[in-house]
Amino acid sequence: MHLFDCHQVFRELYEADCSHASAVFRPRFKGFIPPAEIFQALGPSLDWHRQQLSRHKDFLKSIRSRDTCLSCIRRRPQYGFPCGHLICQNCVRVFYPQRDADPWEYRLEACHICSEPTPGLSIHLTPDTSRLRVLSIDGGGIRGSAPIGFLKAIQDEIGIPGYKVQRNFDVKVGTSSGALSVISLDILGWSVDDCMSHLKMFAKESFVHRCPDFLRMLCRLPFVSSVARLLQLVYALLVDSKYAADGLEQLLQDTYGSDRCLTDLSTATAMGTHVGVTLTKARDDYRHLESDDGQKLVKWWEVYFVPKRIGDLGVFQDGGLAVNNPACIAVREAISLCSDATEPSIVVSLGTGSTVQDEHNPSGMLSSKFPSRLWRALWRQTGSRTTWDHLLSHQRVDSNTKFFRFDVEFLGKEPLLDEVSKMDHMQRTARDAATGTSDLRKLCRHLRAELFLFALDEQSLPYFANGGYHCTGHITCRLRAQTPGYKAFINQLCERAASFQVGAQILQVTRESMEEDLSYRVHFVVPSLSSLIPITLTEEAGERFDVSGSPFTLEWLVQRQELDAGFGTSDHRKRKLPGGTFIPRAKRARF
What are the tens digits of pLDDT across the range 543-581? Predict the structure, then answer.
């Protein structure tokens, strides 16, 4: 952003020389540079781009690239069409129309590269002035039912009928059983209850012993049980696993589809969410697994539980072996999704339970010996609680991110990873542990407030006058009119006498917004580009919660909405105000 008028600089320094150069320009060079009339005849650059793609569509049908968007040849693609072409997010904005009822949803009539029809598909993009909301789910075998219980408690506390809990988060990352949950909730679009019922099916197929039946029978005999367990361990080492994977692998293919790939359009793209699944590489280092391995596409069913070689990238195992709590990874990925590296507004981590231990007085004769101490140290470093503490300790002092962690603490021995019969109990325990707590209530109030956004009005751009920047914008809602939950949500706000506060302004939520999309016009003045602008929602007296992105600065809003793009935006968005661009107050030159 320049603190001067670019037009004035051009007029003072370059206009005279450019006019002179244009006047003496030799005619013989005109054949090399098309005159302005030709460019005017071509029309807008977007129309010309469409014509070129249509002209070469037969050739482009046979070309595929997973490293470069074939539409713009400038960015990495994110969305895969049924025809096999992938495009970037910017090309979604450029080539596809927005739904009238939802400005962040784009309808895909056909692939604009090859013209292959794509009926019924849509892509939902994150609003420009929002900050991402992150959900991280731990792994833990059958204890993976605990996060489902937490999600159920969150959904009940938010209390918007017909609005699934997963829609309250933009980025979801899961490990092990948590990976199954995020894929089921987002890629398949299941409800929390459906996800729980399928987790039980996965658990039954996951924990099928590979060892012979006679060894398991010997384990029940009192005199030979120790020897039998040792033989079981030796057998598992020889066959490289304790449980058979055939049944689970087939179930995963049947559930997620044997051909569904990481970049395919799904319920997640229709909701506008990003899904991540962690894997543990047989070798070391953190690595982002690409959407293909150079030979074939990576399928969703391939990324869970069983050690598997993926092309020439190496052997990958269950992500819980190295990072059982993927919260740090989720935050890192959320920041990387934002071009300006904006931190997420909310981070929620759901645990799978741990045992409360007295670390100061360990019991047992061997507990103080070196092997036991080494084991405890290694286990503690990879523990979910340590990972969470590590994340919190590395946050900036001025960070506005809100962190929430829900977990179950067992007074006795925690359930084993393969105790399938304990799944329902784990879910109920987690749900009961979270219900009614202050943390849950605070989180859900934040999530309800995050359903509202603020954006500057492009028809009335900010201007500097009388020592301050005068700004006009609108508060809108992610939930749109005529969608499930919208009327119920607005009705709840009216019953609670909810209101928005912008500085000294109080805007009461009324039932006039029941039939139409909520939109409140706001005007305020700030002394500088870096002044914080808080916009809050109050549902109960004395409790104010920030809307998405709040508190923000005028500079951040202008950059996010590209109001300072004097030479046009990358998505060819036309300004509703002709020639209007945001020009901040110029600093007085000093001599």
Answer: 899 999 999 999 999 999 988 877 777 777 765 544 444
Instruction: Render 309-335 in DSSP notation, one character per residue.
Output: E-TTS-EEEEGGGT-S-THHHHHHHHH
Alpha carbons 161 and 306: distance in angstroms, whole number: 38
pLDDT tens digits for 239-289? 555 566 666 677 777 777 767 777 778 888 989 999 988 876 555 444 544
Catalytic site residue 339? no
**Which of helix, strand or coil describes residue 235?**
helix
Helix ranges (DSSP H) in 36-176: 36-42, 45-55, 57-60, 89-95, 145-158
Q: Give the start-to-end residue ranges of the domains of the chain.
A: 6-100+107-112, 137-194+263-277+319-356+380-447, 451-561
User: pLDDT digit string (tens) for 166-188?
Assistant: 999 999 999 988 988 999 999 88
Q: How many CA atoms lie within 13 A of 38 on its CB side?
A: 6
Q: Which of 170, 264, 318, 546 is catalytic?
A: 318
Per-residue confidence (pLDDT) for residue 47, from 0 to 100:
84
- Round the CA-based radius of gyration of the chain to a whole number and report it: 28
Q: Across 419-546, where does the E strand assignment appear?
A: 452-456, 463-465, 468-477, 499-502, 505-508, 519-526, 532-533, 535-540, 543-546
Res 503: pLDDT? 87
**Cα–Cα distance, 71 to 74 (Å, whole number):** 8
Q: Is 262 helix (H, G, I), strand (E, B) or coil?
A: coil
Tell me which residue of 541, 470, 538, 485 sits closest to 507, measured CA to CA: 538
Q: How far apart are CA 43 and CA 51, in angstroms?
A: 11
What does the alpha-carbon distance between residue 458 and residue 472 come to, in Å, rounded to a whole number?
9
Considering 136, 145, 176, 550, which one is annotated as catalytic? 176
Q: Are 445 and 543 in contact (CB under 8 A)?
A: yes
Is 318 known to be catalytic?
yes
Cα–Cα distance for residue pair 414/334, rounded to 1 Å: 32
pLDDT value of residue 360:
46
